């Protein structure tokens, strides 16, 4: 069986596509609105598994909170998947993705799905997820696959089937804007251990040939080898930047030399002078997409500062996020500004 699977893989990989040329990427981007939005997880989920597993999948909250996004003119959400949700219940997981996409489409919102992630908690399991540690930023967010891939090399086969199944199912779905193959490879001490999965997920995606562009966002300017590989294998250029306008403009100037559309898929950390008021005008003027971290403050607690110990009062200035769960903005002037920029 494994030999047959490998034969099928190599036969499909042989006809895999190359990254989109700049002309094709430019034509795709010209058909899009100015891409603005947020990284989204419903406020009732502490992590990706709680979002996607059947007992805790929460379409009512998803619908309500995507409504907040639509009201301020956002048109794109970046949403993380997790292979364990597929491994436990592949058909159910795909049906829940379809439910999510139907809800988002009802708000005229497209989705960037993220497959893998090197950030935060290394241990994870199916079933009930841990309750948030009070006041701790991202106390329950999960890596995927994390060090499990180092300890169980056979997991690579599972991840291949997972990626190919999801891409095959949704490769022609217009409600999906982009496939983000791997969030921040090498982060949280993984370093060069991330290379095998990074190279494989690119090959798996190219073998399926989705109609949507694929990308792997650059996030650390000192990761030269990673950055070169990620940029060379992305149909559209994506990046993360949580710093001030000087840093942002430097990143945009550098990345636009590649001649492809540029989208920032993570930004907005108020204490670091990365705000909507400072950054959105730059993104709009430079025709760069803008996806901030966080929509509704909830169980991920990303309105609290990263690295905190917990137990503190809610910060006066939120770190990330825009709305309280009831839809009240953290700062009404800020949401008015976002809405005006999105007109």
TrEMBL record:
Signal peptide extent: 1-16
Coiled coil: none
Domain of life: Bacteria
Keywords: Signal
Name the record gives this protein: Cellulase family glycosylhydrolase
């Amino acid at each position: 069986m494994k030999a047959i699977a490998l034969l099928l893989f190599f036969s499909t990989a042989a006809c895999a596509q190359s990254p989109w040329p700049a002309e094709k990427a430019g034509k795709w981007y010209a058909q899009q609105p100015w891409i603005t939005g947020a990284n989204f997880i419903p406020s009732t989920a502490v992590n990706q598994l709680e979002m996607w597993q059947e007992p805790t999948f929460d379409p009512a909250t998803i619908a309500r909170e995507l409504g907040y996004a639509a009201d301020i003119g956002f048109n794109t959400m970046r949403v993380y998947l997790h292979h364990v949700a597929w491994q436990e219940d592949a058909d159910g997981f795909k049906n829940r993705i379809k439910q999510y996409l139907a809800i988002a489409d009802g708000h005229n919102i497209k989705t960037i799905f993220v497959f893998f992630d090197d950030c935060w908690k290394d241990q994870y399991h199916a079933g009930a997820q841990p309750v948030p540690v009070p006041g701790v930023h991202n106390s329950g967010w999960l890596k995927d696959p994390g060090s499990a891939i180092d300890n169980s090399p056979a997991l690579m086969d599972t991840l291949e089937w997972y990626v190919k199944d999801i891409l095959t199912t949704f490769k022609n779905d217009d409600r999906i804007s982009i496939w983000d193959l791997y969030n921040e490879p090498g982060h949280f001490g993984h370093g060069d251990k991330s290379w095998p999965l990074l190279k494989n997920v690119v090959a798996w995606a190219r073998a399926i040939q989705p109609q949507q562009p694929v990308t792997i966002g650059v996030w650390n300017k000192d990761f030269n080898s990673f950055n070169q590989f990620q940029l060379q294998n992305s149909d559209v250029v994506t990046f993360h930047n949580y710093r001030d306008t000087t840093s942002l403009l430097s990143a945009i100037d550098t990345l636009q030399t590649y001649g492809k559309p540029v989208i920032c898929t993570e930004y907005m950390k108020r204490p670091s002078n990365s705000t909507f008021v400072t950054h959105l005008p730059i993104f709009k003027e430079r025709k760069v997409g803008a996806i901030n971290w966080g929509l509704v403050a909830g169980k991920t607690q990303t309105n609290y500062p990263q690295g905190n110990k917990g137990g503190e009062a809610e910060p006066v200035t939120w770190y990330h996020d825009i709305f309280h769960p009831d839809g009240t903005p953290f700062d009404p002037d800020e949401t008015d500004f976002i809405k005006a920029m999105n007109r």
